[in-house]
Structure formats: C-alpha cells, structure tokens
Amino acid sequence: MSTETTGLTVPGHIAIIMDGNGRWAQERGQFRLFGHKAGVQAVREVVETARSLGVRYLTLYAFSTENWRRPENEVSGLMALLQSYLKAELKTMLRNDIRLCCLGEVQQLPVEVGQVLEKTMAKTAHCSAMVLNLALSYGGRNELLRVARNLARECEQGTLHWADIDETLFTGRLYSAGQPDPDLLIRTGGEHRLSNFLLWQLSYAELYFTDTKWPDFRCQHLVAAIEAYNQRQRRFGKTGDQVQQPEPL
Ligand code: IPE
Ligand code: IPE
Ligand code: MG
To answer: 20: Cβ below 6 Å to ligand 1?
Structure first.
C-alpha cells in the first residue's frame, strides 16, 4: 500500500499509545499477559503498514515510568516479550530499512533487555526509510525534568547562559532530539488521556482516540486514523482563512 493507492496525505510522524491489552485478555477470560502477547502481532502489522505508507517516524509507547508499579510478574512478562520481539524483528527491520531508536530511561531496563536494545539500535543505525521509536520506561515529566537539570548544570558550570535557552535548544535536549514532533497521536483502548506521553512534543499533534483495543488494531485501523487526520485543519494558532491561503511573499 502506498500514498498513491490510498490518495491520503500521510503524517510524517505518528505516535501511538498502545492501550487495552489487559482488558482485551480479561474479556477472553485470560491473564493480562495473554493480551500483551497478542499486542505484539499488532505492533508488527502497524510497523509494516506505516513503513509501506511512507511514514517517516513511528513512535510507540510501550512502557511508561508509571508502568513499573504494575505487578512484578506483568512487568517481567512485558520485559521478556520486548526482548523476544527485538531479537525476532532485527532481520525485518534491516530488510525494511527501519532504524530503531529509544525514548526513555533505558538504564532502568533489565540488563539483558538493555543489551538487545543497544545491539538492535547499533545494527539499524544506518537505516533511513523510517525511524521506529520505542518509548520504554518513558515519562514525559521525567524527560522534561532531565532536560531542566542538564541545562541548570550547564548554566552553573558557566558553559551556557540562561538567556540562550530557547525552544530550539530545549527541543535538542529531549530524547527525541533531531526528530520532528508527532503530527498524529493515536490512542487505542477507549481512554482519552495522554498518560504522561510526549508532553512537550505533542503540543500541536492531532489527537485520535479509538475504542479498538490494541491487540485488535490492524492495517485498516491505522488507515482510518490517517483518514480522520486528513479531515483536520491544522491551524497552529492562525485563522482558517490564513491556513487555506498561501502566505504573501
Ligand atoms: C497497554 O495495555 C500496554 C502497556 C501499558 C504496557 P494495558 O496493559 O494498559 O491494558 P489495559 O489498559 O489494562 O486494558
Ligand atoms: C499508557 O497506558 C502507557 C502505555 C501504553 C505504555 P496505561 O494503561 O499505563 O495508562 P493509564 O494508567 O490507564 O493512564
Ligand atoms: Mg492501560
């Protein structure tokens, strides 16, 4: 599938809060981990679809700083799934020219997960068709605090002047430094909240919520979200008329 076949403007950067795995499993009388396992297939399909549609950046919220508070067996099950996903997907990422990046406190992850993550990021570092960001042990407030602390330290050391801190400098210190902000945020699973995701970067993203739970999310659901995005008028503070008419030279 391509932009030509769908006739849609494809967002350059799509971010997804993959929610609803636990409820999906419980509805089926299964343990929550069963839903997480089923969710991996949705990840595969969405990555493949995004890549073939020409999305340049895909950011998936896989584990939040708050998710460490879940029962230990769920956390360790999620870590094991992440490790096996990364091992299994390396070949596909290389074949599809996908670069893996990570947003979050990677050093908090179990050592063996950190190792496979580092290896996958290094081996795909040259890939350029699409960046796949996995937000792992990620929290938006945590990310902003980290930037604030680093900047404060530089000011204290005299290598930075407080008046030089502007949006560009700040953006360059985020986990997502060098990447454009998401154009479209999708949240599955029926909840209408950000849950501490990309608090800085989502300032002007179009928000799309669906009741579809993550394990059921497929190619057609992604296309439906992109279709909805195509109906939006992004004004960035301007009036509708200004956006429709090209700026005078
Ligand atoms: C999202 O699904 C996956 C993670 C947070 C890791 P949930 O596990 O939050 O599923 P629900 O929201 O409880 O159904
Ligand atoms: C957000 O989902 C985090 C991820 C999808 C990784 P949660 O299920 O943790 O969010 P809340 O707790 O319902 O807000
Ligand atoms: Mg949830």
So the answer is: yes
235 CA → ligand 3 middle, Å: 31
Buried b (16+ CB within 10 A) or exposed e, 141-171: ebbeeebeeebeebeeeeebeeeebeeeeeb
98-103: strand order across its sheet: 98-103, 130-138, 57-64, 13-17, 184-187, 206-209
- The yes-or-no answer on residue 97 being catalytic is no
User: Which residue's CA is the closest to the ligand 2 atom numbered 12?
Assistant: 195
Entry field: residues in the chain: 249
Strand 184-187 and strand 13-17: the pairing is: parallel
Q: How many alpha carbons fall within 13 Å on the CB side of residue 242?
A: 6
Nearest residue by C-alpha to atom 3 in ligand 2: 64
Confidence of residue 97 (pLDDT cuts 50, 70, 90): very high
pLDDT band at residue 178 using 50, 70 and 90 as cut-offs: very high
Q: What is the pLDDT of residues 18-66, one digit of tens each?
A: 999 999 999 999 999 999 999 999 999 999 999 999 999 999 999 999 9
Q: Is the pLDDT reported for residue 152 higher than 70?
A: yes
pLDDT at 103: 98
**Tens of pLDDT, residues 185-216:** 999 999 999 999 999 999 999 999 999 999 99
Span from the CA of 5 to the centroid of ligand 2 (angstroms) = 34
CA distance 114 to 112: 5
Q: Is 96 a catalytic residue?
A: no
C-alpha 39 to ligand 1 mean position (Å): 10
CB distance 18 to ligand 2 below 6 Å: yes
